[in-house]
Write a structure and sequence with these properties.
The complex is a heterodimer of chains A (720) and B (140). Chain A is an alpha+beta fold and 720 residues long. Chain A is 47% helix and 23% strand. Chain B is an alpha/beta fold. In chain B, strand 1, helix 1 and strand 2 form a beta-alpha-beta unit. Chain B is globular. Classes of the chains: A alpha+beta (720), B alpha/beta (140). The interface between A and B is medium-sized, with 26 and 22 residues.
C-alpha cells in the first residue's frame, strides 16, 4: 500500500462541516459506554475523513495498561486481547501516549524507518491519534485511535485530531462516572456488609492473620472491646477475652475450610461464664494476605438444653425399664391368680391368658382327647359370644354369668365373668381384660346362707314372741309396782292413823295413872301404888310399840328426817346412861361405857345414834341374866368411821336366828324369854336407821356366850 | 295482873283428855277454862283472854290449826301462848302446827306433870301457882 494521502476534496469538505461535527458530538453524548463511543467515532471517520479501518485502545482505570476497546474493518477477535503495558516505555504506542498530536506510521518496508507495531489493522500504514481527556483534565491521554486510510484516500489530520479530542473527552467523562459509580457501589456494599454483620446477633468479627480486628459487630465489641472510661472489672474481662480469643484463633490457613471449636469467655457485664462456639473461616484479604471471619455463638443455653435432653433420655430409659419390670410383675401376678384371666384384642382374639385360663381354652398337646377338645371349643364359643356382646355394648365394664365346662372332667362350672375395656386414648379401645370367677363354691355358700337365714328367721320370730310376752309381763309388773306403791302409801297412812287413834286413849290411861300415883286423888295404899305402876309400865310398853310402828312406817315411806349436828360420842354415852339408868339398876349387871381418848367428834343425827344405842343396850340388858355389858367406841382412821360396839355376856343368838334377826318382826322365839315378847321391830329399825346414817349394824354371837352388836358410822354424814 | 293465877284454856273434843288436863292444872293452882271444839275455843279465847291455850289439833268444824291461825291474826289474842297437844306423832304434823302459830307442840301421850312443866316454861314461871300460894301463906 502506498503512503496515505489526505483527500482534501471530499474529506476536508465534509469533515469540516460544523453540522457533520455536531452529529458526532450528539452521537457520542447519546452513547453510554466507551466501546459504542469508539465505534461511533470510527464510523464517523470512515464517512467524513476517508478512514478505511480503525482501532481504539483505552487506558485501564489504574493507568497502567492499554487495552483494545473496539475495531472497525478489522478482525474483531484480535481487538480485545490487545494489551500493552505502559511500562514498555519504548513501544511506539506508549510513546504516542505522550504526544498531543497525531503521529503517522508508515507501512512496513516503505522506508528504512522502524516499522510500526503489529496490530489487527494489518501490515499497513496508519495514523495514531492520541485521545486527550481535555484541556482542563489533568489525566492527559485516555487512549489511542489507530486509523488507516481507505484505498487511495488520504486522511485529514485536522479532522482526526478534532474527532480524537471529542472521543477523548467523552471517554474521560465515561471513565470518571464509571469510577464514581464503582466507588459508590463499593461504599454501598461495605455498608451492606456492615449492616449484615451488625444484623447477626451472634458476635461476628474479621481479623487479619495476626488476629488484629478489622471489622466487628456490636456483639463482638461487647465481648472484646472496652472504652477507656469503662469500669475496671469490665476492662479486665475484655482483656482476658481478647487473650483467650487470640489464643484460640486458627493460624494455619492453608485450606479454606471453616473450623469450629468451643471457647469459654466471660460476660463483661455480669462476670458469668459464656460458653461459645467459635466458627472461623479464612478468606483472602487481597495482596496475598488471608483474613479470618469469626462467628461466635452463645451455646451456654444450648449446652443446658443438651444436658436436659440427656436427662430426659435417661429418664425415658428408666421409665422404659420400669415398664418392663411392671410387665414382668404383671405376668407374675397373672400367673399367680387362681381365677382364669384373659386379654382379648378388639378383633376378639385372645392375646394373653394365665394358666387357669389356658386350662379352659386350650387343649393340652399330649392328650388329643376328642371329648375335651369339643368342650374347649364349646367354652371358646361361649366366651366369644360374651366378648362380642361386650364390644357391642357401650359400657366400660361388663358382668355376666357364664357356664363353662371343665375340659378334663366335663363338670359344668358356673362362672362370673367380669370384663373391663382398657382405653389408651379417648374412644380407642385397645384390649379387654376378663376375669372368670368360679362360683360353684359361692353357690354352695348361698345355699348354706339360705338355710342359716331360715333358721335365723325362725329364731327371730321366737324372740319376737318372747319379747311380746316380756312386754306383757313388764306391763303387769309395772301395774303391780304401782299397786304396791299405793298399798305402801296406804299402809303408811293406816299406821299414822292407828298411831293417832291409839295415842288418844293411851294419853288418858297414862295421864290418870300418873295423877293417881302423884296423889292428886288422895294418898294410895302400897298395893294400890304397885298395881298402878304395873298399869303405867304396860302403857309405856304399848307406847314403845306404837312408836316403833311409826318409825318403821317413816323409814319405809322414806320420810325419816335427818338432822346433822356435831357432837362428841361421850356426850351421847352420858345421855344413854341417864335414860337407861332405871333399866341398868333393875338388871343388876355391870355396864361399862368406854370412848377412846382421841375419838373425833361425830357429825350425824344425834337423836338416831342415841335411839340405836338405847335400843341395843336395852336388848343387851334384857337378854343377859348375869355378867356385864360393855359399850365401846373406836375410830377407824382409814375408813374415817366410828365403830360403837355393845357386847354382852348373855344368852347369845343361834346361827339360824342371826340370819333373820335384822328383819322386821324377825325376832326368833328362842331369843326372847316368854316374858319379854316385843314387836320384833327394834333391831330392824336400828339397822335401817344406821343405813340412813350411811352406816350399818353387824352382829357376832355364840349361843350361850354372848353377843356383840357393832354400830359403824361414817364420822361425817354427807347428805346427798 | 288482872287475875291472881294464870288462866289456861284447855281445848279437846276427847272428854277424858280434856277433863284430866283441866283437873290436874286446877290441882296445880291454875285458873282453867275448857272448850270442846274450835268455835267454842275461839269464843272463849276472845271472851276470857287466857294466858295459855292447850290446843288439841284434830277438832270438829274449826280444827286446831285454823283456830290458832285466827287467834294469831287478831291483835287481842295474838300474845296468848298456844301449846298444841296432839296425838299426831309425825314430823309433818308438828311442822304444820308450828307454822300455824303454836309456840310449842306436845305429842300425846304425855303425863300431866310434864305437861304442866311445859305450861310453866311458856309462862316463864319457876313454880306452880299452887306452890306460890302455899309459900305466900307460909310467909304470912
Amino acid at each position: 500500500m502506498g503512503v496515505a494521502h489526505l483527500d482534501a476534496s471530499r474529506g476536508s469538505r465534509g469533515s469540516r462541516d460544523p453540522v457533520r461535527r455536531l452529529a458526532l458530538t450528539d452521537a457520542l453524548l447519546a452513547e453510554r459506554d466507551a466501546r459504542s463511543c469508539a465505534l461511533r467515532t470510527l464510523e464517523w471517520l470512515r464517512e467524513e475523513a476517508g478512514a478505511g479501518s480503525g482501532l481504539c485502545l483505552m487506558l485501564d482505570p489504574d493507568g497502567r495498561t492499554l487495552r483494545g476497546l473496539a475495531g472497525l474493518g478489522v478482525d474483531g477477535d484480535g481487538v480485545e486481547p490487545m494489551k500493552i503495558e505502559l511500562s514498555q516505555s519504548t513501544h511506539p504506542l506508549v510513546v504516542a501516549m505522550e504526544s498531543r498530536e497525531p503521529v503517522a506510521m508508515e507501512a512496513p518496508g516503505e522506508s528504512g524507518r522502524r516499522p510500526p507495531p503489529i496490530t489487527p489493522l494489518g501490515p499497513i500504514g496508519y495514523t495514531i491519534v492520541p485521545l486527550s481527556a481535555g484541556a482542563r483534565d489533568d489525566r492527559g491521554q485516555v487512549g489511542l485511535l489507530l486509523v488507516a486510510g481507505a484505498e487511495g484516500r488520504s486522511l485529514d489530520e485536522e479532522v482526526l485530531a478534532w474527532a480524537g479530542g471529542r472521543l477523548g473527552v467523552r471517554l474521560a467523562a465515561l471513565a470518571y462516572s464509571a469510577a464514581r459509580d464503582a466507588e459508590a457501589r463499593r461504599r454501598r456494599e461495605v455498608e451492606w456488609l456492615q449492616g449484615v454483620i451488625e444484623a447477626v446477633t451472634d458476635p461476628v468479627l474479621l481479623t487479619d492473620a495476626e488476629g488484629r480486628i478489622l471489622v466487628a459487630n456490636s456483639g463482638a465489641e461487647h465481648l472484646l472491646a472496652a472504652a477507656e472510661e469503662a469500669a475496671e472489672g469490665r476492662r479486665r474481662a475484655v482483656a482476658l477475652n481478647n487473650m483467650l480469643f487470640s489464643a484460640s484463633l486458627f493460624t494455619d490457613t492453608e485450606d479454606q475450610r471453616p473450623r469450629r471449636r468451643e471457647l469459654l469467655l466471660v460476660n463483661p457485664v455480669d462476670g458469668q461464664d459464656l460458653l461459645l462456639e467459635l466458627i472461623t473461616t479464612p478468606f483472602p484479604l487481597g495482596k496475598g494476605e488471608t483474613g479470618l471471619v469469626s462467628v461466635l455463638r452463645d451455646v451456654t443455653d444450648l449446652s443446658r438444653a443438651t444436658a436436659e435432653i440427656e436427662e430426659n433420655y435417661r429418664k425415658l430409659r428408666t421409665a422404659e425399664a420400669e415398664v418392663r419390670a411392671e410387665r414382668d410383675r404383671l405376668d407374675v401376678i397373672l400367673n399367680a391368680v387362681l381365677d382364669p384371666v384373659l386379654v382379648t384384642d378388639p378383633g376378639g382374639n385372645i392375646v394373653l391368658m394365665n394358666p387357669p385360663a389356658e386350662r379352659l381354652f386350650t387343649v393340652p398337646a399330649p392328650s388329643r382327647d376328642r371329648e375335651s377338645e369339643r368342650r374347649v371349643r364349646a367354652n371358646d364359643a361361649v366366651f366369644t359370644s360374651f366378648a362380642t356382646d361386650l364390644y357391642a355394648g357401650r359400657s366400660q365394664r361388663w358382668r355376666k354369668d357364664l357356664t363353662l365346662s371343665d375340659p378334663e372332667t366335663g363338670v359344668q362350672i358356673p362362672m362370673e365373668a367380669i370384663s373391663a375395656k382398657t382405653v389408651t386414648r379417648p374412644g380407642q379401645e385397645t384390649a379387654i381384660v376378663t376375669i372368670l370367677h368360679d362360683q360353684s363354691e359361692a353357690a354352695e355358700k348361698a345355699l348354706l346362707y339360705d338355710q342359716v337365714k331360715r333358721h335365723s328367721d325362725e329364731l327371730e320370730e321366737r324372740v319376737r314372741e318372747a319379747t311380746g310376752e316380756l312386754a306383757d309381763q313388764n306391763e303387769l309388773l309395772r301395774r303391780q309396782a304401782l299397786q304396791l306403791e299405793h298399798a305402801s302409801a296406804m299402809k303408811s297412812q293406816f299406821l299414822a292413823n292407828v298411831s293417832h287413834e291409839l295415842r288418844t286413849p293411851l294419853h288418858a290411861i297414862v295421864g290418870y295413872t300418873s295423877v293417881l300415883l302423884e296423889g292428886m286423888a288422895g294418898p294410895l295404899a302400897e298395893s294400890q301404888q304397885e298395881k298402878l305402876k304395873r298399869v303405867d309400865s304396860n302403857a309405856s310398853h304399848l307406847l314403845a310399840i306404837i312408836n316403833d310402828l311409826l318409825d318403821l312406817s317413816r323409814i319405809e315411806s322414806g320420810k325419816m328426817p335427818v338432822r346433822i349436828e356435831r357432837f362428841p360420842v361421850s356426850e351421847v354415852f352420858d345421855e344413854v346412861r341417864t335414860e337407861t339408868e332405871s333399866l341398868i339398876q333393875a338388871s343388876d349387871l355391870e355396864v361399862h361405857f368406854k370412848a377412846l381418848e382421841d375419838l373425833p367428834e361425830l357429825a350425824t343425827d344425834r337423836q338416831k345414834v342415841k335411839q340405836i344405842l338405847i335400843n341395843l343396850l336395852s336388848n343387851a340388858l334384857k337378854f343377859t341374866p348375869a355378867g356385864e355389858v360393855r359399850i365401846e367406841a373406836n375410830f377407824d382412821r382409814t375408813g374415817d368411821q366410828v365403830a360403837i360396839s355393845v357386847t354382852d355376856t348373855g344368852v347369845g343368838i343361834s346361827h339360824e336366828s342371826q340370819q333373820t334377826i335384822f328383819e322386821a318382826f324377825g325376832q326368833s322365839a328362842s331369843y326372847f324369854a316368854p316374858s319379854q315378847i316385843g314387836t320384833g321391830l327394834g333391831l330392824s329399825i336400828c339397822r335401817r336407821l344406821a343405813k340412813i346414817l350411811g352406816g350399818d349394824i353387824t352382829l357376832e354371837s355364840e349361843p350361850g356366850e354372848g353377843s356383840t352388836f357393832t354400830l359403824v358410822l361414817p364420822r361425817q354424814l354427807e347428805i346427798v | 295482873m288482872k287475875r291472881g293465877a294464870p288462866l289456861v284454856l284447855v281445848v279437846d273434843d276427847f272428854a277424858a283428855g280434856r277433863e284430866l288436863c283441866a283437873e290436874y292444872l286446877s290441882f296445880r293452882g291454875y285458873e282453867v277454862a275448857t272448850a270442846t271444839d274450835g268455835a267454842e275455843a275461839l269464843n272463849k279465847a276472845f271472851e276470857l283472854e287466857p294466858d295459855v291455850i292447850l290446843m288439841d289439833l284434830s277438832l270438829p268444824a274449826i280444827d286446831g290449826w285454823e283456830a290458832t291461825r285466827r287467834l294469831r291474826s287478831d291483835p287481842r289474842t295474838r300474845a296468848i301462848k298456844i301449846i298444841a297437844l296432839t296425838a299426831h306423832a309425825l314430823e309433818a304434823e308438828r311442822a304444820r302446827a308450828l307454822e300455824a302459830g303454836c309456840d310449842e307442840v306436845v305429842t300425846k301421850p304425855v303425863i300431866p306433870r310434864e305437861l304442866e312443866l311445859v305450861v310453866r316454861r311458856q309462862l316463864g314461871r319457876e313454880t306452880t301457882p299452887a306452890e306460890d300460894r302455899a309459900s305466900e301463906r307460909g310467909a304470912r
